[in-house]
Amino acid sequence: MTAYWLVKENPSTFSIDDLEEHGSTPWYGVRNYEARNNMQAMSEGDRVLYYHSSASPPGVAGIARVVKEAYPDETQFDEGSPYHDPDADREDPTWYRVDIGYEETFPRLVPLSEIKADERLSEMTLVNRSRLSVQPVEEDAFEIITRMAKG
Description:
The model has no long low-confidence stretch (mean pLDDT 96). Helices cover 26% and strands 33% of the residues. It is globular and about 50 Å long.
């Protein structure tokens, strides 16, 4: 059964266009336990809303899919990485990543302001706890946002 998610990225770091160009990418560097747990719950084929954060305006730019399920994030062991965790243990890793693949770019970005204004989306994690970088999305919310993007 397909599950639905939302991942956030600054478009100046890695935009939906970058994802399209690369085809897929490891989603690494997450250092929040709830977001990590969400990634560990992802299954291959799950669909993902790709959200541009720290943008003007911030919003959902397109759709990706999970192409590889959770596996240890090697950056936790790399002392030269900004994501290094000195407490990480190779035998029992703390941090995980998934790989996501490009599916589509929306004809228009769905701004956060429109998402917040839509009563049907009032229960979304994005609306209530917007800082979480990897979050679950209900199927109906996924479909509503997709329709909003396509007019």
